[in-house]
Amino acid sequence: MTTYRALTEAEAIAYAKELPNIFAADAQLTSREIGDGNLNLVFHITDEQSGRSLILKQALPYAKVVGESWPLTLDRARIESEALQLQASFCPELVPHVFAYEKDLALTVMEDLSDHVIMRKGLMENNRYPLFAGHIGTFMARTLFYTSDLGMNQQKKKLQVGQFINPELCKITEDLIFDDPYRDSPNNNVEAHLKDAVAAIWKDHDLHLEVAILRNTFLTRAESLLHGDLHTGSIFIKADSTKVIDPEFAYYGPMGFDIGALLANLLLNYAAQEGWSTDEAERADYRKYLLETVKEVWTVFEREFRTLWDNDVTDPMSETPAYQDWYLNRVLQETIGFAGCKMVRRIYGLSHVADIDGIEDASAREKAQRLALAIGTSLIKHHRKAASIDELIAIARDAA
Ligand code: ADP
Ligand code: MG
Ligand code: MG
Ligand code: MG
Questions:
Q1: Which residues are listed for substrate binding in this entry (predicted)?
Q2: How many CB atoms within 10 Å of residue 360?
Q3: Phi, psi for residue 346 in degrees, rounded to 5
Q4: What are the chain's domains?
Q5: Which listed ligand is nearest to 172 at the C-alpha?
Q6: Residue 152 burial by CB count (10 A; 0-12/13-18/19+): exposed, middle or buried?
Q7: Which value, in Å, is the radius of gyration of the alpha carbons in the chain?
Q8: Cβ distance 294 to 265 under 8 Å?
């Protein structure tokens, strides 16, 4: 039994040395802290001699946000390590392997993925990943199906809901995504040149109704174990491999929230192309690639999910004709609505994305921001009427 303390690099090395069957007893280890330091420490431990390495991720008992410090439960480290291990049972090739979890230190020991890059960075360099849609569509279909009442015993599922109660991290989502952006909250971070667009959103009661409905779904629908923070900064990628990391926001919620988060981040990069591709034809071509990827992600998800349903669902009520179609259409509608919410909050909420904020040219950045807001608000307003992913694509393509 140890007591919690935030590890120093020397302590991280000492801890790594003690792990069974990883490093030699006399190994000369080095450590580098590579996290961004807001919520968690991430130590990259290497043994030059053998070439072996691993990652220690340790939760801090607070989050640093806008200069202030707010307490945050260490239990999220348990949730993250248990979610990673559960996801690995459905698709081991799509998540980092977890070697150990140390409760008292809120520490997860996992596979080093430094040969991959964070996808947000890859997209900002206009790279293309032809296997990505297949990988992530499969990840979402498997993790969302096999943790739902369709893919597991309903009584076991209820117990699993209890395993992943995550009220403090859910509150961050509830406030930052479904509340603050729709009123003049001190948590917002509004640039002066966007004041008119933001004021219009604060007055738009038709929009607020749709957000309130989506918020209610997020609060009440224990449908599947979500990743909970599935943006392109939570994905490590290289040409032949995709790995989903950082599920500390995992909880039982609506499937469309994960799918929508992912699609929103592809669409934020789409909007950000105002600043990242200088050549008109090149920009149009990369945008075409992004929209094709959005469509393929949904298409793979739907195909895989239907296959799992056809093969693995055994209860007679779920085999009722037309039920599967009804179900997937509802997931599509919620995906579109949550995607819109995820886009809006990244433009003037508390926390933004580098795709947009990294644009140096002020007029290009403003154009990208207004485009993202136009797409995001249209998706939210349209979501309950949607019947095809093509409608999301058309909204993105036609937004001015
Ligand atoms: P946080 O919850 O603080 O955002 P992440 O799990 O996203 O933590 O990790 C933060 C950063 O640490 C990542 O962007 C990545 O650069 C690095 N990192 C995290 N996990 C790994 C890993 N398994 N292999 C290599 N680098 C990692
Ligand atoms: Mg981070
Ligand atoms: Mg992260
Ligand atoms: Mg995180």
A1: 229, 345
A2: 8
A3: -80, -5
A4: 9-110 (3.30.200.20), 117-398 (3.90.1200.10)
A5: 4
A6: middle
A7: 21
A8: no
Compute, in angstroms, the gap from residue 246 CA to the centroid of ligand 3: 5
Residue of the CA atom closest to atom 9 of ligand 1? 35
- Which one of the ligands is nearest to 54 CA? 1
Known binding residue 112? Answer is yes
Task: Please give the pLDDT value at position 1.
Answer: 55
Q: How much distance in Å is there from the Cα of 38 to the middle of ligand 2?
A: 6
The residues whose Cβ lies within 5 A of ligand 2, an ion, are: 36
- The complex scores an ipTM of 0.97
The token pair at 138 is 């499969």
Q: Which atom of ligand 1 is closest in space to residue 110's alpha carbon?
A: 23
CA–CA distances in Å: residue 43 to residues 40, 57, 59, 101:
10, 6, 11, 14
**Alpha carbon of 248 to ligand 4 centroid (Å):** 6
Share of the chain residues as helix, strand and coil, in percent rounded to the nearest 5: 55, 15, 30
Residues with CB under 6 A from ligand 1: 34-36, 39-40, 42, 55, 57, 96, 110-114, 118, 234, 245-246, 248
Instruction: Render 18-82 in DSSP notation, one character per residue.
Output: HSTTTS-TT--EEEEE-S-SSSEEEEEEEETTTTEEEEEEEE-SEEEETTEEEE--THHHHHHHH
Compute, in angstroms, the gap from residue 163 CA to the centroid of ligand 1: 24
pTM (two decimals): 0.98
Q: How far apart are CA 380 and CA 375, in angstroms?
A: 9
**pLDDT, tens only, 329-386:** 999 999 999 999 999 999 999 999 999 999 999 999 999 999 999 999 999 999 999 9
Annotated binding-site residue? 9: no
239-269: per-residue pLDDT in tens? 999 999 999 999 999 999 999 999 999 999 9
Judged against a pLDDT cut of 70, whether residue 310 lies above it is answered with: yes
